[in-house]
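User: Show me a protein chain along with its predicted structure.
Assistant: Here is one chain, sequence first, then C-alpha coordinates.
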Amino acid sequence: MKRHVDFLALLYLIWGGLFLLVGIAGFALSAGAAAIVSSTGLVQKGASLAAGITAITLAVVAALAVVWAALHLWAGSQLRRAVPWARLIALGLAVINIVLLPFGTALGIYACWVLLTDEGRRLFEPAAVSGA
Protein backbone atom coordinates (compact mmCIF):
# COMPACT_ATOMS: atom_id res chain seq x y z
CA MET A 1 0.00 0.00 0.00
CA LYS A 2 3.03 2.28 0.48
CA ARG A 3 3.44 2.34 -3.32
CA HIS A 4 -0.13 3.56 -3.71
CA VAL A 5 0.37 6.33 -1.16
CA ASP A 6 3.59 7.41 -2.91
CA PHE A 7 1.81 7.36 -6.28
CA LEU A 8 -1.11 9.32 -4.81
CA ALA A 9 1.35 11.89 -3.47
CA LEU A 10 2.86 12.19 -6.94
CA LEU A 11 -0.60 12.64 -8.46
CA TYR A 12 -1.38 15.37 -5.93
CA LEU A 13 1.86 17.13 -6.86
CA ILE A 14 1.03 16.89 -10.58
CA TRP A 15 -2.55 18.08 -9.98
CA GLY A 16 -1.24 21.00 -7.95
CA GLY A 17 1.25 21.85 -10.71
CA LEU A 18 -1.52 21.87 -13.31
CA PHE A 19 -3.64 24.19 -11.20
CA LEU A 20 -0.64 26.43 -10.68
CA LEU A 21 -0.34 26.73 -14.47
CA VAL A 22 -4.05 27.51 -14.69
CA GLY A 23 -3.62 30.22 -12.06
CA ILE A 24 -0.67 31.79 -13.86
CA ALA A 25 -2.57 31.76 -17.16
CA GLY A 26 -5.60 33.28 -15.43
CA PHE A 27 -3.50 36.12 -14.04
CA ALA A 28 -2.05 36.74 -17.51
CA LEU A 29 -5.54 36.90 -19.01
CA SER A 30 -6.65 39.19 -16.19
CA ALA A 31 -3.75 41.51 -16.95
CA GLY A 32 -4.77 41.57 -20.61
CA ALA A 33 -8.34 42.49 -19.70
CA ALA A 34 -7.06 45.17 -17.34
CA ALA A 35 -4.94 46.56 -20.17
CA ILE A 36 -8.10 46.96 -22.24
CA VAL A 37 -9.65 48.97 -19.41
CA SER A 38 -6.67 51.30 -19.19
CA SER A 39 -6.28 51.81 -22.94
CA THR A 40 -7.42 55.15 -24.33
CA GLY A 41 -8.24 53.99 -27.84
CA LEU A 42 -11.65 53.67 -29.42
CA VAL A 43 -12.92 51.46 -26.61
CA GLN A 44 -16.43 52.39 -25.68
CA LYS A 45 -17.64 52.84 -22.14
CA GLY A 46 -19.56 49.54 -22.10
CA ALA A 47 -16.59 47.61 -23.42
CA SER A 48 -14.39 49.13 -20.75
CA LEU A 49 -16.85 48.11 -18.03
CA ALA A 50 -17.07 44.57 -19.43
CA ALA A 51 -13.29 44.32 -19.58
CA GLY A 52 -13.05 45.50 -15.97
CA ILE A 53 -15.53 42.90 -14.78
CA THR A 54 -13.68 40.26 -16.78
CA ALA A 55 -10.34 41.30 -15.29
CA ILE A 56 -11.68 41.06 -11.74
CA THR A 57 -13.40 37.74 -12.37
CA LEU A 58 -10.32 36.21 -13.97
CA ALA A 59 -8.12 37.45 -11.13
CA VAL A 60 -10.41 35.89 -8.52
CA VAL A 61 -10.56 32.56 -10.39
CA ALA A 62 -6.79 32.61 -10.85
CA ALA A 63 -6.26 33.30 -7.14
CA LEU A 64 -8.54 30.37 -6.26
CA ALA A 65 -6.59 28.15 -8.66
CA VAL A 66 -3.29 29.14 -7.03
CA VAL A 67 -4.68 28.44 -3.55
CA TRP A 68 -6.02 25.07 -4.76
CA ALA A 69 -2.61 24.32 -6.28
CA ALA A 70 -0.80 25.24 -3.07
CA LEU A 71 -3.06 22.98 -1.02
CA HIS A 72 -2.41 20.04 -3.35
CA LEU A 73 1.33 20.64 -3.51
CA TRP A 74 1.49 20.86 0.26
CA ALA A 75 -0.70 17.77 0.78
CA GLY A 76 1.32 15.78 -1.76
CA SER A 77 4.60 16.59 -0.06
CA GLN A 78 3.19 15.67 3.36
CA LEU A 79 1.65 12.42 2.07
CA ARG A 80 5.12 11.29 1.00
CA ARG A 81 6.29 11.75 4.59
CA ALA A 82 3.23 9.85 5.93
CA VAL A 83 2.28 12.72 8.24
CA PRO A 84 -0.94 11.62 10.03
CA TRP A 85 -2.92 14.85 9.53
CA ALA A 86 -1.95 14.93 5.83
CA ARG A 87 -4.24 11.97 5.30
CA LEU A 88 -7.22 14.00 6.54
CA ILE A 89 -6.28 17.02 4.41
CA ALA A 90 -5.86 14.79 1.35
CA LEU A 91 -9.23 13.16 1.98
CA GLY A 92 -10.89 16.56 2.25
CA LEU A 93 -9.32 17.64 -1.02
CA ALA A 94 -10.33 14.32 -2.60
CA VAL A 95 -13.98 14.86 -1.77
CA ILE A 96 -13.94 18.26 -3.45
CA ASN A 97 -11.92 16.92 -6.39
CA ILE A 98 -14.67 14.42 -7.16
CA VAL A 99 -16.78 17.16 -8.76
CA LEU A 100 -13.93 18.24 -11.10
CA LEU A 101 -14.71 15.98 -14.05
CA PRO A 102 -13.05 13.86 -15.37
CA PHE A 103 -9.53 13.85 -13.90
CA GLY A 104 -10.45 15.25 -10.50
CA THR A 105 -13.10 12.55 -10.17
CA ALA A 106 -10.58 9.81 -10.86
CA LEU A 107 -8.07 11.38 -8.47
CA GLY A 108 -10.69 11.80 -5.74
CA ILE A 109 -11.93 8.24 -6.01
CA TYR A 110 -8.39 6.85 -6.05
CA ALA A 111 -7.43 8.98 -3.04
CA CYS A 112 -10.47 7.77 -1.12
CA TRP A 113 -9.66 4.18 -1.95
CA VAL A 114 -6.00 4.47 -0.95
CA LEU A 115 -6.51 6.51 2.22
CA LEU A 116 -9.64 4.80 3.55
CA THR A 117 -8.50 1.17 3.35
CA ASP A 118 -7.21 -0.39 6.55
CA GLU A 119 -3.71 -0.78 5.11
CA GLY A 120 -3.61 2.83 4.00
CA ARG A 121 -4.92 4.01 7.34
CA ARG A 122 -2.24 2.05 9.20
CA LEU A 123 0.52 3.79 7.25
CA PHE A 124 -0.49 7.09 8.83
CA GLU A 125 -0.77 5.90 12.44
CA PRO A 126 1.85 7.47 14.72
CA ALA A 127 3.39 4.07 15.59
CA ALA A 128 3.81 3.22 11.91
CA VAL A 129 5.44 6.58 11.17
CA SER A 130 7.95 6.37 14.01
CA GLY A 131 8.70 2.72 13.27
CA ALA A 132 9.40 3.32 9.56
